[in-house]
Known about the structure:
5 helices, 151 residues
Amino acid sequence: MNARKIFFVLGLLLIGSMGIMAQHKGREHFNPDEFKQKMEQHIIQHAKLTPEEAGKFFPIFHEMKEKQHQLQEQIFKLKKEKPSFNATEKDFQNAIMSIKSLNVQMAEVEETYYKRMCKAISAKKVYDAMNAEDAFYRRMFSRFKNDNRKK
């Protein structure tokens, strides 16, 4: 699994974990719109996107993330609903192949959308945005980890 996919999965886990954390007393509720806005601001700042570039980039970016999220949900579902107790080796092989196929689809979605992004804004800015997104998820994950240590 490449680093982008790892950070994407960590991001999804972080979002889910933040929702669980928000249920504890004294915690602010997780707001997905606020999280999205903070991520956008981070990307705009670090990739130095102009308002025009951001207006072109983010619709494509969010559409890609939604498609990847849908595929990731299918992967989680397949892993959660593992073959039955008396499943055959072939059943497990089919499950593995289904998960692998979804991972390939996720990579294809990413490739398609990065090409679209590079047509909308410069490849350098797309590259910088990718790195800014990764840095944002690392920062949020680190913050989440540090908050849990304080308990």
